[in-house]
Amino acid sequence: MLLEARDLNVYYGAIHALQGVSFDVDEGEIVTLIGANGAGKSTILKTVSGLLHPRSGQVLLRGESLVNVPAQDIVRKGIIHVPEGRKIFAPLTVAENLEMGAFTRSDPAEIQATMERVFKSFPRLKERLTQLGGTLSGGEQQMLAIGRGMMAQPKLLLLDEPSMGLAPILVEEIFSIIQEINSQGVSVLLVEQNALMALSIAHRGYVLETGRIVLSGAGQELINNPQVIQAYLGGH
Amino acid sequence: MPTVNRPGARLAWIGQAFLLGLALLVLVILGRALAANPILFLQQVLNGLQLGFVYALIALGYTMVYGIVKLINFAHGDVFMVGAFVSYFAVARFRLSEWPAAAFPGMPGWLVLLLGSLTVILLSMTICAILAVTIERVAYKPLRDAPRIAALITAIGVSFFLEYFGALGFVFSPRFIPYERMFNVTTWTVGAGGIHRLVSGQAVPDNAITISNIFVIILLASILMQTLLQFLVRRTKIGKAMRASSFDKPTARLMGINVDGVISFTFAVGAAFAGLAGVLFAIAYPSITSQMGILPGLKAFIAAVLGGIGSIPGALVGALIMGQAEALTAGYISTPMRDAVAFTILIVVFLVRPRGIFGEPEGEKA
Q1: Could you say which of B240, B253, B365 has the minimum Cβ distance to residue A71?
Q2: Is the CB of A71 less than 8 angstroms away from the CB of B258?
Q3: Which chain B residues contact residue A146 at CB under 8 A?
Q4: Which of A164, B184, B196, B297 is most solvent-facing, going by the fewest CB within 10 Å?
Q5: pLDDT digits 0-9 by tens, B104-134
Q6: Residues spanned by CATH 3.40.50.300 within chain A?
Q7: pTM of the model
Q8: Contact A233, A193 (CB under 8 A)
Q9: Do residue A104 and residue B250 have CB atoms under 8 angstroms apart?
Q10: Class of A1-78+155-236 in CATH
Q11: Which residue in chain B has the smallest CA separation from A152?
C-alpha cells in the first residue's frame, strides 16, 4: 500500500474536523474524496502533506509514519500537495514558480527534462514563462499549479479542487491531464466538488460527511449508488 | 449630486495645501542656497550621499525582514552598533587588522591594510549575522503565530536589552569610546586647481570640494551590496525561495522550502549589512557608544518606510533622500534640526502615502 491513513482525528481548536478517518491509496491509483463543503476533504489533504498534524491516528507512506514530519520534509518523500485555490506565487514568474516546484531537486538537466514534460502537458505555460504568476487567468494558474506539482516528480499527487472556478471545457482538459499523469505511474488523491467528473476518472472513491467517511467503493460503483446520486450528483 | 460632507474633508485639504507650501518653501531655500554658493551646496550633497549610503545598508535589513515576517525589527539599529563594536575590539584590542603583516612579513603595506581591513569587516558581519539569527530564534520565532503587536513590542525590548546590556562596564561601556580606525582617512580637495591631497591643519580652498577615501569606500561598498542583494533575490534559488516564502509561507512549505531556514537566512543577510554599515559609520564618525545605533537605526527605518517597506530598491531611494534631508538641514538650517526633519518626513509619509514610494498597496495579496 502506498498511502494508508488510520483513524485520523484532527481538530481546529475545539472543532473536531476529522473524526476517525481511514482510507488508503494504492500504487498507480486515482482515489477521490467527495463530499460537501466543510466535510473535511481539504483537511485530509493538509494532514497528509503535513500542514496540519492529527491529534491521533496514523498516516503511513509505504509503512513509514508521516505524523509530525514537517511539510517541507514530506515533499522530499514524494508526496506533493497542489493546494486549493492554486496558490500560485503571484510575484514570481511562471518559470520561477516551476523552479520552486523543483526546489528539492538539484540536477539542472533532470529539472529541465521534467519542465519539458510539463510543457508537453501544458503548452500554454511555455508561452507564458516570463510572465508573473499573478497575471495568469484562472485556468492557466491551475495548469501552473499542477505543473509546479509535477516538477517535484511526485509518487503521490494530492489535488485539491482542481476544477474550481474553471470553464467546463477547461475542466475536461484538466481531468484528462490528471489521467495522463496517473498513466505515467503517479498515484493521485483527488478532492473534488465536481463529484461526477471525479468519480468517472477515479479507480476508487470515498464519501465524506462532517468529518467521517460514510461510503467507499470503486468509482463506477459510487456513480451508480442511489445515495451518492441523491446527495452529490444532483439526483434524479 | 452627492454633497461632500465627510468630516475632516476640509481639514485634509488644508493639510495638503500646507504640505505643498512646505515643499515649495524647502525648494526655495535650497534653490537660494545653491545659487549663493554652488560649491558649498555640492559639498553638502556629498555629505548627504555618504550618510544616505550608510542608511541604505541598514534600511535593507528592515525592509527584507519586514518583507518576510511582517515585523519591524527595532533591534536592527543595535545590531549596527554591535557591528561597530566588534570592529573596535578587533582593531584596538586584538590588532586583528595587522595579522597579514605578522603572518607574512614582507607583504606590501597596502595589501596588509586591505586584507586586514577585510578580515575585520567580515568578522563584524559574521558576528552580527549570528547575533540576529539568535535573536530571531530566541525572541521572535516563538511569537510567529501571535498577534503582530506582540513581536513588535518584543523587538523594542530586544533593542533596549542590547543598548543597556552594551552599556554595562564589562561589555562595551556607557561612555563614548574613541574609535581606532584600521586605516587612516585621507581627504582630497577637488576643484578648479585640480585634485590635491589635503594635509591636516591646512585650510580647504574656497572653490574646492573635499572627498575622503572613506566616502568612496562607503559608496562602493553600499552599491556593491545592493547589487549582490539584487542578484541574490532575483537569480539564486534561496533568493527565489525568499520571495516565495514572503508571499505565502504554507505554500512555500509545500514546495519543500524550509521556511524557518529562509527566515533565519534573511535575518542573517540583513544583519551582515548592518554590521558592515556599523564598521563604515564608525570609521567615518570615529566615536562609538552602545546607544549609537538608535538614531541611525530609526532614520534607516524611516528610509525603508519612505521607500516602501518590503521593497529593496525602495530602501536605497528612501535612504538617499534621508541622507540629503539630514545633510542639507544640518548645513542650511541647524544641526540639531536634522533629527526633527527626519521624523517630520516619517509623519508626512504616513499622512500622504503610507505605503511609501515603491510600496505595494495594502491588501493586494490574494
Answers
A1: B253
A2: no
A3: none
A4: B184
A5: 998 999 999 999 999 999 999 999 999 999 9
A6: 1-78+155-236
A7: 0.93
A8: no
A9: no
A10: alpha beta
A11: B255
